[in-house]
Each structure stands twice: as structure tokens, then as C-alpha cells.
Design goal:
The chain has 2 helices and 10 strands, in the order E-E-E-E-H-E-H-E-E-E-E-E. The protein is α+β, with helices and mostly antiparallel strands.
């Protein structure tokens, strides 16, 4: 087997001899996969489908969102409100901002939200008297919120102490705090 590295020919010889084996591409369906643990025990519960990759990517986005939200979550728990740098969309509009504009140009150092989140799809748990609010997380306000480089991270919190997050603009949500502490 050969190849090139920086335009120089490179030869690779597989000492196992596997390179010399010809495998029928149709035989792939007959191969059994096993997930072996570090103790060489077989784990038959492993899902070999692409589903795990998708779940991994979602989990990775959750961690990114949580990392960006840590200080806001702590503040929210301690003070039962968002930090003073958060303003509602209505307040931002009054300053001349629009959703296609960079907030930094109209309200330096401020962040959007604290607005009521309607939960019209029922993605969040509902209860009598519960009101949901939303807050941007991890936004770069020197560019518009609609800029594809800005994450779709939102913190969703209720008047009775629940806190959820979303990394995909409300397609999915995940629980951060399940009850008032």
C-alpha cells in the first residue's frame, strides 16, 4: 500500500497481512459488532446506530450552553431575577434596536430578555400560575441576534424556580433545576 506525504512517496506495509485480504463488501451485514468494556466484558446493550452520535452532539451543545450560562444561573438562583444588564426586547426597541441590528450599538453592555415565554407548544412543564421567562445566553451583541454565528442558546426559567435550557432555539429543552431550592 502506498501514498504521498508532502509529495514524497510513502510505502506502508501492514505486518498483520490484513491489507492483502480481499473482503466482499456484501459481507458487511454478516459482521457482528461487540462493544467491549475496559475489563474485556462484552456489552450487548450498546446501540451501534448513528443515534448515539446525534445524542453525543446534543449533549455537547448542552454543555456549551451550560458553560455559557453558569454565572447567569447562579445569579438567578441567588437573586430570583436576571442580572441588571438584561433588558427586555421592548426596552431595546425603545432605544432604536431591531432584531436585525447589533444590540451593542444601541445598548452597550446589555443583553436581551427577561420577556415572558409563552410555551405555546407545551415543551416546558405547565402548572397553574406558572409563568415562564426567557433569556439569551452566549450571544455576541456586536452582531445581530439573527447572525448564524450567534448561538441559539436560551435560558428558560419560571416564577416557581424551574430552570431549563435550549441550545437549538426551542426545538428541544433540557432540565437544569427541577424545583425551587
Amino acid at each position: 500500500m502506498g501514498g504521498y506525504c508532502a509529495n514524497n512517496p510513502v510505502m506502508y506495509y501492514d505486518p498483520s497481512g490484513k491489507d492483502d485480504c480481499k473482503i466482499n463488501p456484501d459481507a458487511e451485514e454478516n459482521v457482528q459488532q461487540e462493544n467491549v468494556t475496559k475489563d474485556n466484558e462484552t456489552n450487548d446493550n450498546y446501540d451501534w446506530s448513528g443515534h448515539d452520535v446525534i445524542e453525543y452532539m446534543k449533549l455537547k451543545e448542552q454543555y456549551k450552553m451550560l458553560e455559557a450560562a453558569n454565572d447567569i444561573i447562579d445569579y438567578l438562583i441567588d437573586n430570583e431575577q436576571l442580572p441588571d444588564n438584561y433588558i427586555t426586547k421592548e426596552e431595546a426597541y425603545a432605544l432604536g434596536w431591531g432584531s436585525d441590528k447589533a444590540l451593542e450599538n444601541y445598548a452597550p453592555g446589555k443583553a436581551i430578555d427577561g420577556d415572558v415565554f409563552e410555551n405555546s407548544t407545551g415543551i416546558l412543564p405547565e402548572a397553574d400560575g406558572r409563568i415562564w421567562y426567557e433569556a439569551d445566553i452566549g450571544q455576541n451583541y456586536s452582531m445581530s441576534r439573527s447572525n448564524s454565528k450567534n448561538p441559539s442558546y436560551r435560558l428558560l426559567f419560571s416564577n416557581d424556580g424551574l430552570i431549563y435550557g435550549t441550545f437549538d432555539h426551542y426545538e428541544t429543552v433540557f432540565e437544569i433545576i427541577s424545583q425551587a431550592e
